[in-house]
Amino acid sequence: MAAFMKLADRLLVVAKFLTILIVAGMVFSVLVGVFFRFVIPIPMAWPPEAARFLMVAVTMIGASVAIRQLDHVGITLLVDALPMRVRGALYIFGNIMIAVFLVVFIWFSWRLTVEMGPRQTSSSLGVSMAIAYASMPIGGVMMLIQIVAVSIEGWQRTLRSQSPFGPPSAA
Asked: Residue 168: which region, alpha, beta or left (left: phi > 0; alpha: psi -120 to 50)?
């Protein structure tokens, strides 16, 4: 269990670093596109396409960061009225449902990446669409690892009589 949590922690650091790099690439791409379209008036075709591909990648990888840091929106008004063990059970059940979705997502996005991606080429960049599609299964695996990690942490909080839906309270 400790080895898995260490892996999840390291993967979180990698995901944060990749998110920063991808956002920087996206900003660069948009700035180049704006510069060439409005300053030099010679529009280029590749910057918007690159920005779209990078936006998908940052969404997929950044979602794993949000999962681990419990930054996704959650309304726990009704759940907070339940006994602590029931809260923990509902938390785990919800995370199992998310994990099931992620396994299906990973499977189909992997198939899309390896089966359809090599047969397609992006219109402006001229690269294999497998490169653009690859962020989906990679992000899905990263999200799956983080959902397991937050489930472990949430159950541990429940056993300490803390809410599984938030970070540990400072006592």
From this structure: beta
Q: What is the mean pLDDT of each run of 10 residues along the chain (171 residues)?
A: 95 97 97 94 93 97 95 84 90 96 98 96 94 97 97 93 75 43
Q: Taking Cα atoms as reference points, which of 74, 70, 72, 66 lies closest to residue 139? A: 66
Whether the Cβ atoms of residue 164 and residue 155 lie closer than 8 Å to each other: yes
The full DSSP string for the chain is -HHHHHHHHHHHHHHHHHHHHHHHHHHHHHHHHHIIIIIS----SHHHHHHHHHHHHHHHHHHHHHHHTT-S----TTGGGS-HHHHHHHHHHHHHHHHHHHHHHHHHHHHIIIIIGGG-B-TTT--BHHHHHTHHHHHHHHHHHHHHHHHHHHHHHHHTTS-TTSPPP--
Q: How many Å apart are CA 4 and CA 103, to the nearest integer?
A: 18
